[in-house]
Write a structure and sequence with these properties.
By secondary structure, this protein is mostly helical. Helices cover about 50% and strands about 0% of the residues.
């Protein structure tokens, strides 16, 4: 895709010579990306870039109309890239080289899936929350699962550190509450005795 020329080619208004969009030959670096077939969503993203450029005043009404038609007739990523090569963003499907090489805008990237939550972290949070209605009986299991979850999260890079921490805090508060009740009971028994 290093040979992709911005629209319109320098010194020539309108479409490139030949009336159509030449399919760029894939370079050794961007092997096959320019020739890869474009989908309807890729054309829609290109039209979104054109709409933004028109709204920002980067394109005249005639340029927008001509590029809009060309975008809907484009068959490959290379053809789509030519249409928006002189605009701030465009559909760059992968690593490319040359003057039109740019980082892929977040709009054109696949959504990143977050890491799954750690099961022990979920268990720690649930046990910590159940400490209150159960009278604090589940405090020790909440602390144990919280520590196990934090260790697993460090090793596996899963999500759930906040849940494990919350379970630990609730579990320790429950254990501390029970320890305070027992200590108070021992002190009261010692005063009476």
């Amino acid at each position: 895709m290093g040979d992709v020329q911005p629209w319109p080619p320098a010194g020539r208004p309108g479409r490139p010579q030949g009336g159509g969009w030449p399919s760029p030959q894939p370079s050794a670096q961007g092997a096959g990306y320019a020739a890869m077939r474009a989908a309807h969503t890729d054309r829609d993203r290109t039209v979104d870039v054109l709409k933004a450029a028109y709204a920002e005043g980067r394109l005249s009404s005639a340029e927008y109309s001509e590029r809009f038609d060309a975008a809907h007739q484009a068959q490959t990523y290379g053809q789509l890239a030519q249409i928006v090569a002189d605009l701030p963003t465009g559909p760059m499907p992968g690593p490319v080289s040359g003057p039109s090489a740019a980082t892929v805008p977040p709009t054109f990237l696949a959504p990143v899936r977050p890491a799954p939550n750690n099961g022990m972290a979920i268990a720690s949070l649930v046990l910590g929350l159940l400490c209150v209605p159960s009278g604090g009986v589940l405090g020790v299991p909440a602390v144990i699962t919280g520590h196990l979850a934090r260790r697993q999260i460090r090793e596996t890079q899963e999500s759930g550190d906040g849940m494990a921490t919350a379970g630990l805090v609730l579990g320790y508060l429950s254990v501390a509450g029970w320890a305070a009740v027992l200590l108070l009971g021992v002190l009261l028994m010692g005063v009476r005795g």
